[in-house]
Structures are given as structure tokens and as C-alpha cells.
Amino acid sequence: MMKVLQSDSTDVPTLLVLLYVKVLKLFEQFDAPDYVIRVAHIALDMASPDDPNIPDLWSNIFKHHLELGHNDAAYNALIANPNPVRRRVCLHKLMVTLCERGQTQQLIEYPFVKLTR
Q: Whole-model pTM?
């Protein structure tokens, strides 16, 4: 199993997160955004606080919620992402997408907290 997950780790939670990341990518290939979101949340629940996959998982949750038009959930995923670079990238995508959709009123109503660092 460690060969499939491309990891030398023997830590079970770490291996489970890597397995969920693999499953998440399969759901992305089959255009199943609801399942991507579910699997990413499960992986986050399993992850240790210092797991390096956490920013990627939050970015995936953001991306797929935004694609589905779940703007509030996308915003919440953006804010939850611990990586400031990822937050900025997601913020840019949120702003562009909502402007393109003509949803600027919703955009200006969000409290842009935790985005200054």
C-alpha cells in the first residue's frame, strides 16, 4: 500500500490522508465535484495539524464549491486555508468568478478576514 501511496511513512493517519488524496483525484477525473468535497473533508478530519496536504485539501474544497456556485462554502474554505499564498490565489479566483457572474453584491458583503498576512 505504501508503494501505491508513494510514501515511506508508517503513520496510519498520514497514509489515510494520502489514500483520500488519491481517491479525490479520481473523483476529479470523473467530474464528481460533490464527492471531491466530501473526500477532502474526510481527509481533513483524519489529518494531523501539521499534515502538508491540508492547504491542497482546502484549495480543492474551495475550487469545487466555487464551480458548483456554493459561494459561501467556497469563501469559508478560502478562509480556512492555513497557507497565505493559497488564500490569495483563492481570493483572486473568487473575486474574478463572482465579478464574471455579476455577483458583485455578494462579493462586497464578505468579511475579508485573515487575508492580510
A: 0.90
Model pLDDT for residues 67-116, shown as the tens digit of each residue:
999 999 999 999 999 999 999 999 999 999 999 999 999 999 999 876 76
**Residue 95 has which C-alpha cell?**
473575486
* Cα–Cα distance, 55 to 77 (Å, whole number): 10
CA-to-CA distance for 46 and 35, rounded, in angstroms?
A: 17
17 three-state secondary structure: helix
The CA angle 13-61-59, to the nearest 5 degrees, is 85
Buried-exposed string 13-49: b where 16+ CB fall within 10 A, e elsewhere: ebbbbbbbbebbeebbeeeebebbbbbbebbbebbee
Tell which residue, 63, 72, 55, has the closest CA to residue 34.
63
Q: Distance between CA 116 and CA 65 in Å, rounded? A: 23
